[in-house]
Amino acid sequence: MSEHKKNRLDLIEEKLGELNQTSWARRLRITSGVLWNLLIVFLIFGLTFTVFAASVGAGYFASLVSKEPLRPKEEMRQAIFNYEETSEIYTNGQYLRKVSADIERKETRLEDVSQYVIDAVMATEDEYFNQHKGIVPKAVFRGLFQDVTNSDSQTGGSTLTQQLIKNQILTNEVSYERKAKELLLAMRLEHFMEKDEILEAYLNIIPYGRNANGTNIAGIEAAAEGIFDKSAKDLTLPQAAYIAGIPQAPFAYTPFYNRNRGLKEPEYLQPGINRMKTVLFRMKETGYITDAQYEEAVAYDITKDFKEPSIPSSEHYPYLTEEIQRRTVQILSKMIAEEDGVDPDRLENEKKLNEKYTIMAERSMRNDGFRIYATVDLELYDALNEVAQNYDRYGYTYTDEKKNSETGEVEIVKYPVQVGAMMIENNTGRILAFVGGRDHNEEEVNHATQSFRQNGSTMKPLAVFAPAIEYGVIGAGSPVVDVKFNWSGWKPVNFLANQELGIIPARQALASSQNLATARLYRQILDRRPAEFLEKMGFSKLQEDDYENASFSLGAMGIGASVEENTNAFATFANGGKFVDSYLIEKIEDREGNIIFEHKSEAVDVFSPQTAYIITDMLRDVPKYGTATNMRNHLNFNIDMAAKTGTTDSYSDSWLVGYNPNISLGVWMGYKYQTLSLQGPGNRSYGTSNIRTTTLFAQLMNAANKVKPDVIGAGARFQQPEGVVSRSFCGISGLAPSAACSSAGLVRSDLFNARVMLPNKADDSIISSSSVLINGKRYQALPSTPREFITAGGVGVNSEFIERMLGPLKGDASKLFPANSGFASQVVSGAVFHADDVPPAPVSVSNNGGTLQWSNSPSNDVVGYYIYRDGKRVGAISSASRSYPIGGGSYYVVAVDITGKQSGPSNVVSAEGGETDETETPEPTDGDQSNGANPDAPPSDQGNESNNGNGNSEGNGNNGSNGNNSNANGNNSGNGNGTPPVSN
């Protein structure tokens, strides 16, 4: 080193030494030392905190995923490729439609997807898809930071792999635990699947909003078809960009409304169009498209490519589709519960448990790609529903004003007559067809399966007559009593409120649907709980009160029965007494074709074959001469059919259920609200509820027979089983014919179940009797009753018989053989008339063209009238008549009561028509009261005049021959061949 340089360095050192000695230099040195030391401390703390935070974060992450099992490769791949394919419905072996799934999807392969779609997805959803290993760390931290700071800008950060994991393995739950599992599984999945497999799976599962019919869709193929009506491989650049933008906000960007309400308005389409432009911009920025392609696509009017809405197949078969789906869910819920070790029977009684498995089953039914096979024959279904839709006699449509809770506007609500019908194949229980209602858009309730109503008189054979036959209480023609009663305050009446038919055959009581006879018979068997038969026949809504309620015999149920249940119960009779539960789902296959469910019919013994045949034979009379003759008259083919009508109080429901050996058909009509009457205001022009229901039933049967005669089997006949025999019996008592019964012409014959009941004990109820007629009713004559008014040597019944027939419900014994009874001309009831021991009040007479006529005596015990001419008795007339032909002379009339007491004379009239001047008329002598008829009187005035009108209706002035004609009809009806009064 030169001397000069050495001196220079020494000078610098000297200067520095001087500076170090200054005060500010000393302060700077101290401060810098402190700062350095602080920096070292902060670095140490920073590194320590970072290590600690990383350890805590790692530990927290580990805790979040600790419960996530280490999924093997095959399990993860299987879960990813489970695309939740929409299940399909088949009816009678033919494809019907897909189920109404929450999401409709259609699987496709990656090579069948437009490259525009793939590029749009890459540019928009995962720019680094081909580089990352399942996650992008900086995107994860960015998302975490935005979440912690609650930033308004939420850019996301999920890769396609993460989205696949979220949709196929995990859930949409918003939580750190789910996110941690998602990250872990995404990285793991990248080891098990190729990038193309991940991309293909993603394109098949991602939601894309709604299609043109408003159905939720998922998967690129379903999106392409549902939005643009083309395959995914044919999508143009603007179309691909539009679809690729939808997943960010599916229901904001989708162009269609839900529930088939069509295309959105232009202002609501704009968000989706803006999103499409964003996707196109990102494609340009990432180099997938050129500037020219971008400009052309951005300017394109995408709205002209949107698909036009069409009527989905569910619109054609809404009731059928929903019923099939509902029953499939019921089946699957029990299967899933059983797989979980839960007793399926618990689902019926535990509401929350049922809800849980119903949700799981519904999700499975809609998305697991099942093939569901139903029993419905579409030809039959279409035929029945066409008739139901075109029927023009349902009745009046009520309307009401109701405020819309959403708009606040007052709307007119319609309440039309609704209908439900069900056709079942008897021996298998297969539901062949049904009518769910008139308009699914107006009312979605399936009135064939979901609406429960009281079944009216269709209950009578099910709960009363068939059980009574099964118990051995009656045979088909056994006598039953149709007389009013008071059962602990319950006072039912017949369809015709004043009608009492007295003793009639059970066959007639059922055919003409007599309420009084039915209820009395039910009283005899109630202690045996006949409602239990309905349990066996599938009635699902029975209440405890139903087992003890007297009016249950007439169909007054606590809740009611569905059309399916009621029809299914009648099919029991067609099946020889065996109940075969109706069903709609034949089998269910998984997507591989494996049968996971198949229905197996099991017959339940309810009634004996003998009871089933006898009740069937009785119900054959309903269309022949009973309450369903209108149905028979409208059938255009011959068929061996048994049937029963039913009507509830106030005509809120009208029923007809009928069956032949092959099928059973039930029809119900009524309003949504039971307060509305089928025969209320506005319904008169449509006919009675019975006429409307029976006519519709006939039209449904005609249509069914036309399209499927082999299914209906009109030529089939019910076969009488061994043990059903025809036996003679005394028609009024049901006992074996005695000599007295035979001589009185009271022997009848009908079917019996030889295994439980035969009329073996000889009848002992008949006695010799003399009777009188009072106000149209027959009573036993008293010793003091004038013989001119007595029907001598008739057939009467003893008091034991009366007591036995009326039973504990008792009743008016004089009504056992009323004037309209088939036995009225042959039997006196044996009732004793309790006279008032007061002479009857006099009558007033007049001459009407040579006929003496007089008023009715106000006294209630008059048995007849004496006619006097010129003070001498010339005739005795039964109380059934109040006229007498006259010649010359002066006439007056005296009323006679059952005890023989006479009224005072009436006024006197002359044969010329004027009253005489006489003010007094000699009283008849006591001897006159017991004398026979005047031998000089005309033949019609002889003592046998008391026979006149024996068969007349109450209060009717018909002559004796007319009465006898009515008796003849009544006798035929007693044999089951006549035409008894009809009630419903």
Task: Describe how the helices and strands are arranged.
Layout: H1 3-20, H2 23-64, H3 73-80, E1 88-91, E2 94-98, E3 104-105, H4 115-125, H5 137-148, H6 160-168, H7 176-192, H8 195-205, E4 207-210, E5 216-218, H9 220-228, H10 237-245, H11 250-253, H12 266-285, H13 291-298, H14 313-316, H15 318-339, H16 351-367, E6 371-374, H17 378-390, E7 398-403, E8 410-415, E9 418-425, E10 431-435, H18 459-470, E11 479-482, E12 502-505, H19 506-511, H20 515-525, H21 532-536, H22 563-574, E13 578-580, E14 585-589, E15 595-598, E16 603-605, H23 609-619, H24 621-625, H25 629-634, E17 642-647, E18 653-659, E19 663-670, H26 689-707, H27 709-712, E20 724-730, H28 739-743, E21 747-753, E22 766-774, E23 777-780, E24 791-797, H29 799-806, E25 827-828, E26 845-847, E27 851-854, E28 862-869, E29 872-878, E30 883-885, E31 890-897, E32 909-910, H30 926-930, H31 960-974
Parallel strand pairs: 1-6, 3-5, 24-25
Antiparallel strand pairs: 1-2, 4-5, 6-14, 7-8, 9-10, 9-19, 11-12, 13-16, 14-15, 17-18, 18-19, 20-21, 22-23, 22-24, 26-27, 27-30, 28-29, 28-31, 31-32
Helix pairs in contact: 4-10, 4-12, 6-7, 6-8, 10-12, 12-13, 15-16, 17-26, 18-20, 18-23
What is this entry, summarized?
It is built from 31 helices and 32 strands.
Q: What can you tell me about this protein's structure?
A:
The chain is an alpha+beta fold. It has 31 helices and 32 strands. A five-stranded mixed beta sheet has the order 2-1-6-14-15, covered by helices on one side. Strand 28 (862-869) and strand 29 (872-878) form a beta hairpin. Helix 4 (115-125) crosses helix 12, helix 6 (160-168) packs across helix 8 and helix 17 packs antiparallel against helix 26 (689-707). It is elongated.
